[in-house]
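Whether sequence alone determines local backbone shape is best considered at the level of individual chains. When preparing material for the folding task, we compiled for one chain both its residues and its backbone structure tokens. No coordinates are needed to read the tokens, only the vocabulary itself. For completeness, the protein is quoted in full, as a sequence line and a line of structure tokens:
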Amino acid sequence: MSKENAVSVGNYKSKKVVKKNKKKDTKYIIISVFSVIAFLILWELASIYSWVNPLFISAPTEIILATKSLLFDVNFWSNIKVSAIEFAWGFAFATIIGIPMGVFAGWNKTFNAIISPFVSALYVTPKVALLPVIVIAFGIGIMSKIVIVFLMAFFPIVMSAQKAMSTLDKDLIKAAESFTASQMQIFTTIALPSTVPFLLNGIKLGLGQGLIAIVVGEMFASTAGIGYQLTNAGQNLHTDEMFVGVLVIAITGVILNGIISLIEKRFSVWKPEE
């Protein structure tokens, strides 16, 4: 077989594999869509035939009607804006501080020994237990929620960055050192590119924790935000409005997670091969 024929056969096989994988992906997407539709139908039937108490769980149709109503409510958008600001600032600080600290801790054993006891202790400490102290120190305004989001998102990011540095290819580092590469050159050309996929995974974990922090912080002590709306709706037994708030948090999480996944896919080629 000639070289050109071999290349054309290889291209044909690769295209066939890609096409097959796309068919599989489409199949699983269809299954996922139908499972969600079946769940919603079952949920609606459970509400219609009173299999569950409608006082506690609203039907999907009622939640849709409540959503339409809240979309024209100024307070609803104001609450979303407050929560968005709190989350954005808290998560930004967690990322800006957490990534360099985690990477440097994984790279420098002395620095790691200094911060490791504090990171380990605070990581396992329930952040909710610190809420009363945070509220006393920063009040019930936006700042206290920024702090709790920071604390919840910071530790997953730090520990993922720290762990990422332990996955470096030691043989590759030794090879670079044998070619008289400086520590800075090794750090910028080998360490950082290799850890990017793991750092993004830590950011993804931090996103989830940050969204939890927003809801918990606003439910505990706040005068605005999605968590405050959830509490207010629950106290007035407006379960349909409660589910709208839950839906907002869920959709936000899915969108942010999807964005990080796309970025993660883009940098997955940087992940060192085993």
Remarks:
- The mean pLDDT is 78.
- The domain at 60-270 is CATH 1.10.3720.10 (MetI-like fold).
